[in-house]
Amino acid sequence: MTLYHFTGIKGSGMSSLAQILFDAGEQVQGSDVETYYFTEQPLRDRNITIKPFDENNIQEGMTVIAGNAFPDDHSELVKAREIGVEVIRYHKFLGDYIGRYTSIAITGAHGKTSTTGLMSHVIGGYMPTSFLIGDGTGSGKQDAAYFVMEACEYRRHFLAYHPDYAVMTNIDFDHPDYFKNIDDVYSAFQELALQVKKAIIACGDDEQLQKIQANVPVVYYGFGAENDFAARNIVKTTEGTEFEVYVRNEFYHKFFIPLYGDHAVLNSLAVISLCHYEGIPAELIQERLNTYGGVKRRFTETKIGNNVLVDDYAHHPTEISATLQAARQKYPDREIVAVFQPHTFTRTQAFLQEFANSLGKADAVYLCDIFGSAREQAGSLTIADLANLIEGSDILKTEEIHVLQAHKDAVFLFMGAGDVHKFQNAFEQLLKGE
Fold this sequence. Notes:
Elements: E1 3-7, H1 12-23, E2 27-32, H2 41-45, E3 49-52, E4 62-66, H3 75-82, E5 86-89, H4 90-97, E6 102-107, H5 112-123, E7 129-133, E8 137-139, E9 146-150, E10 165-168, H6 182-193, E11 199-203, E12 218-222, E13 229-236, E14 241-247, E15 250-257, H7 262-277, H8 282-290, E16 300-304, E17 307-312, H9 317-330, E18 336-340, H10 345-350, H11 352-359, E19 364-367, H12 383-387, E20 394-395, E21 411-415, H13 421-433
Parallel strand pairs: 1-2, 1-4, 2-3, 4-5, 6-9, 6-10, 7-9, 10-11, 11-12, 12-13, 17-21, 18-19, 18-21, 19-20
Antiparallel strand pairs: 7-8, 13-14, 14-15, 16-17
């Protein structure tokens, strides 16, 4: 039995895949930096060995799965090749592995993680399902029939996959450090479309997705009446959202989701469309929708006194608008305070005015210094450039977190893909001290 060694096991996809292989009965270990990441907790819970990076971790008889963030000259990967140990890149291994199941790849510029979490939960109530979610959550069932996975477009990594189904939530310009423009992003999705084996479930309200060409059926969902699966008669409350689904203009079923915002309706509609295509009964779909608990860092709430603190991964203007809309639906009478940390200098530069427009919908805005990435540590602009575009906004430092106390009984949205949680942690400590 081979031992799978993960070089970079704390990466969100890597951690999930390690959990899946372990759950499926394989021998698994890995290595990474010593800094704590939330993605490592599920590994610790399974007692999976995590070692510091060291070429001596690599032994004969292993298979090394390499995280995409680590170059070929990483000491562990060099050692593996020297002693003849097989090295497989994460996305290549995953592309081969999903061939054993009915595979469902979920992709899009926004909504991937939330939709993958919801899809795996609903389908898992019908048949044993393994899943890989980009929030560092994975689960492998030894008797799995389905494999639900998040498929990321960054650097065209998703082209390693030939799934049975692809769910495409939207096409938007993001990752400006890699993609040239929206047409470049579209070309990546179009290439993936030609690799899908059974059907594509796509949001028909998205102009770019309307152009997708494929060798399999393309089933459209959305709010527009022309979609194959359309949501109508939507009722939004502080408890959640109710809507009717029409399949090619014929009433199918009324659904309730304990979720908020238009994006939550669309994500649910994607799941309902695929389940209908696979013959899963509407009653079972509703039963599973009722018990869905969400995924990490997607409108994750902490309540302290009368304050609501929300941790959310929103790091693109479209996602910020969606998070604000959800907060307004659930807490219509509360002040909404946005605390935002931009992620990467290239993204901040590319969407500076769009960030200002989306954040401007909050009642108060606090901005944290730009979080760089492993690939770019500095840029020509600073957080002050964004602050200058948002009237009344303030730049926030962790040591001055007490300024947030000026907002009483408010909803605080801590948004970003970097380490914005340190601001939330500081504020939580302050509130608990009261």
